[in-house]
Every structure is written in structure tokens, then in C-alpha cells.
Write a structure and sequence with these properties.
The structure is a homotrimer. Chain A is built from three helices and eight strands. By secondary structure, the first copy, chain A, is of the alpha+beta class. Chain A has one domain: YjbQ-like (Jelly Rolls, Sandwich). Chains in contact: A-B, A-C, B-C.
């Protein structure tokens, strides 16, 4: 059995942003030497999420717009905004999830043609966001 | 340590549809020979999701209606609809997630009485949807 | 390879409630003896969810309010409410997910400073909610 952990560091530039991390995640799977198992992609944050979808610029805008519409940044109804003006980002992170998991088969991360992996920033810009990739298998 | 991977193929018939895949997932767990570990249920698609809930016909309609209300099929505000008329399905797939994971204890997938496993189709009908089950443990 | 499973039992007191289960989850990781791997936190219910976020009282209220606004308890549009008045809780549980997964590195569950782990009750009060923690690794 093998367990391989790698940390990916990402800088973000906008309040809402989707950063494609497919390449470093797949690199971690290759480095792990795992032939069959799983790969966990986990952001150590409470105001960001990890999602998988198509890397198409229009869709990236659509997802950011939907997330903003749903989470309502700056709304006076959020009590947490009295402490820190980012309740919307906490809510999105909590409900959409900070991790996604993929099968690993024959040494490769399994994903569909349109499943790129993204860090979903909801409270940027941030100097450094951390994503942990844990590859586990044989 | 054992890792067992199985592919489930599903045909869908409606734009929004919930297809119960509990039986083939549990079959994969039995075939794996894994006594204790986890089972990952992963759809290789960017316009579908995997969820777990009660198999009750009224609730199935409710979930489909909520997903449609949230994702707004055909809306002119989605830029991706200029390329392909399915932005709503991408958004739902990205935010609800393409996978669910279950414990395996004493050779059986652990789930509550009301936790059936479903493929959530949001861009059907499709000739073939693929779900990968990875069972990992000892 | 090690697989360790622990059951956490939680009593809930409100219809919508966030119960912090970080301590017993971290205890399970310590008890497991796993140095590197993953920890799955899974609720065996179809009207509750597991999420991770900051334990701040204002934010807890915000998340409960957002979940209620999104799921619309008591709405006459939910067909499942003709059987059992909790369609909203099923919908939230299905879409937000009943599990979260964390890396385990050097014997410790990896989480950010603001990532506490919560059971999200949406159909309380309940005498007993069950959360299964499966720690898997080496």
C-alpha cells in the first residue's frame, strides 16, 4: 500500500475566481506511483471550495455568477459580516465542499473529458491558497 | 490491501432524471472482497452528479424540481449556452459534486435506511452515462 | 495498511442545528494509529449533512438561515410533504452531501484553522444521529 501527499500552492487575484489545478493534481498522481486507488483533492480553507467541471471561459463566468447570486456577498442579513465581510464565502465553502475525490486506475487519475479540477476562490485575492492532494492505493 | 474498480453504465431518458444505482454499487462492494474500507461512487461527467437519498417518487420529483429551479435551464444569462445549451447542467454538476463516498464495514456498504444512491442526470437523455465504483480496503 | 471505524452518536435539539463534531473525529484519527491516509466522516441519514467551516455563532446562524431559505421547509410545492413534512431536509441532505473527507498526515487530521467539522441537522430534534468515521491508511 502506498500513501502519497503533495501540497499545491495557488495565488488568487479576484474575489471570485476559478483556478485550474488539473495539471499539478495529475502530476501528484504520477509521482505517487499508485496504480489503483483514489486521489483526494482538499483545500485547507473555509472560504474556498474544490470543484470539477469544463474549462470553458463562458462557463467559468456562469459558475462564478451563480455562486455569487446564491451566497449574496455583502448582504446585511449575514451576521458573520459584522466580524469579517466574507460570510458569503464561508457559506459557499461549507455547502459546496472543500474537496473532491477521483478514482485512480492504471496509474492515471480517472476523469471525464470535461472534468477539469478547479480551486473555487470566493474570498480573494489571496497570496496563498493551499490544496492537499492525497493519493492512496497500491 | 485490496482495490477493486467496476464500471456501471446507465442509460437516461429525461433531461432531469434520478436513476437508482444502489444495487450495482452494492454488488461491486460484494465482488471486491473488501471487508473494511471505503467505496467511492464517481460519475465521469460534467453535466451529471451522484447523490444519496430516499427512493420515494414524490421526493424524486422534488429534487429534480429544486435542481432545475436552482440551475435555471435555458436562461439567457448563462454564457455557456451560446456554445451548448446546457450551462445549467454544468453548474449543478460542479456544485453538487460528481461523487459520493461510503464506509464499508464487515463486507457491506454502510448507508442509512433512506440513503439510496442515485445518478442525477441534468442533461439527458443520454445513451450512456458511466459511473466508476472504487472499493478500497482490507 | 490500517482501517479503523468509529461511530459517533449525536443528539439534536432544533429543527436546523450545527453540531460541532471536530473533537470526536480527531479522537478517532488518534485512536486509529494511522500515520498517513484519509478520514471519511459520514452521516447515515437522508435529512442531515456533514460540512466543514468556522465555528462562529453568527456564521452558524447564517448557514442555518441559508439552508432554510434554499430548501423551503413546509412549502406546499414539495410532494414529499404529503408523506412526511420534511422534504426540505431530504433536498438539503441530497445536494449538500452526507460526508466530508480529510487527509491524514503524520497522525493528524489535516484541516485549516477555520475548518471545524459539523453535523448539519435539518430535521431535528432527533434523539440519535449516527456519524461513521472511517480512517484508512498506513
Amino acid at each position: 500500500m502506498k500513501v502519497y501527499t503533495k501540497e499545491i500552492k495557488v495565488r488568487t487575484h479576484e474575489r471570485f475566481e476559478l483556478i485550474d489545478i488539473t495539471d499539478p493534481v495529475e502530476e501528484a498522481v504520477r509521482e505517487s506511483g499508485v496504480r489503483n486507488g483514489i486521489a483526494l483533492v482538499f483545500a485547507t480553507h473555509a472560504t474556498a471550495a474544490v470543484i470539477a467541471n469544463e474549462h470553458e471561459q463562458g462557463l467559468i463566468e456562469d459558475i462564478k455568477n451563480k455562486v455569487a447570486e446564491f451566497t449574496e456577498p455583502g448582504s446585511s442579513k449575514w451576521r458573520h459580516n459584522m466580524i469579517d465581510d466574507n460570510a458569503h464565502a464561508h457559506i459557499g465553502s461549507a455547502l459546496f465542499g472543500q474537496e473532491r475525490i477521483f478514482p485512480v486506475v492504471n496509474g492515471r487519475l480517472v476523469r471525464g473529458v470535461w472534468q477539469n479540477i478547479f480551486l473555487l476562490e470566493m474570498d480573494g485575492p489571496r497570496h496563498e491558497r493551499r490544496v492537499i492532494v492525497t493519493v492512496l492505493g497500491e
